[in-house]
Specification:
Blueprint (H helix, E strand, L loop, with lengths): L1 E4 L8 E5 L5 E3 L5 E4 L16 H9 L8 E5 L6 H9 L3 E5 L24 E6 L2 E6 L1 H29 L2 H32 L3 H71 L1
Parallel strand pairs: 2-5, 5-6
Antiparallel strand pairs: 1-6, 1-8, 3-4, 7-8
Helix pairs in contact: 3-4, 3-5, 4-5
């Protein structure tokens, strides 16, 4: 989820990154402009400091008001209150934010149901704050679905390619199938982790994984048939080469025989004279 505060029609000229719990303010050159060590407790206090992240950001940005800066923060710092305070100082901000933030407006919390379509995103706005959401899980599911659609497309091309009995084309077909199949397990593991992280039941994740493995097994069987075709075509090509070599050798022997006959006839004619 991204939280962005936009200050009217101000033209943005610079971007500053604030993404470390040590409170480092990095310039575009990569050098540290300012730094403040963050601690949940002040040295003279025993209780945690309230609003630590916002206080650090406001301290580090002092003196940079109304200079067309965009401040980039991670979810340790970002909050709606901080966004409003920075906006009041003439500083726009952009960063990730935790939905369970104490002051996070309910209008910006995206509903869990109904589940959004694959690859979709959503947004909400409240005053001058804009929140945009996307789902890594849905993107990962979209990618693995694309792999299977490509495998299906390649599978449908098999009869046409095999009918031509073209060795190189069939070898390319085999490599394409193998490449796509080999990429599925890694993608599947990534989705498993995302599903578990999301809170899905392990049995549901396992059931989904078995379905993926079943599809992979089907395409592996198809690929094995293509491998057999490649092997047969290679053997046929090798046999053809062998036949061509034998034919060339036979023609060579015939030529030698004819040359020897000509030589013998020439000798006999010389002896007659």
């Amino acid at each position: 989820m991204v939280l962005q505060s936009v200050g009217g029609l101000t033209v943005q000229s610079s971007v500053i990154d604030l993404g470390s719990k040590s409170g480092q303010w990095l310039m575009e050159t990569g050098y540290i402009l300012r730094q403040q060590i963050c601690s949940e407790k002040k040295f003279e206090q025993e209780t945690p400091e309230v609003g630590l992240g916002a206080r650090v950001v406001l301290d580090l940005t002092a003196g940079y008001q109304d200079k067309n800066y965009i401040l980039v923060t991670d979810n340790f710092y970002t909050s709606p209150i901080l966004a409003h305070k920075l906006l009041a100082r003439g500083i726009d901000c952009l960063g990730t934010v935790k939905a369970n933030n104490k002051h996070f407006p309910k209008d910006l919390i995206f509903p869990q149901k109904p589940k959004p379509a694959r690859g979709s995103g959503s947004w909400r706005s409240c005053q001058k704050i804009l929140a945009v959401s996307w789902s890594e899980l849905e993107e990962a599911l979209k990618k693995i679905d694309s792999k299977f659609r490509l495998l299906e497309f390649t599978r449908d091309d098999i009869p046409r390619i095999q009918e031509k009995k073209d060795l190189k084309a069939t070898e390319r077909l085999q490599k394409t199938l193998e490449k796509q199949i080999d990429s599925v397990p890694e993608q599947m593991m990534e989705i498993q982790a995302l599903k578990i992280e999301k809170g899905e039941e392990p049995d549901h994740v396992r059931k989904w994984s078995l379905e993926i493995e079943k599809q992979v097994a089907e395409y592996e069987e198809i690929t094995q048939d293509v491998r057999k075709t490649v092997k047969n075509l290679r053997e046929e090509a090798s046999q053809e080469v062998k036949w061509e070599e034998e034919k060339a050798e036979e023609e060579k022997r015939q030529w030698r025989y004819e040359e020897e006959l000509k030589l013998e006839e020439a000798k006999m004619q010389i002896e007659r004279f």
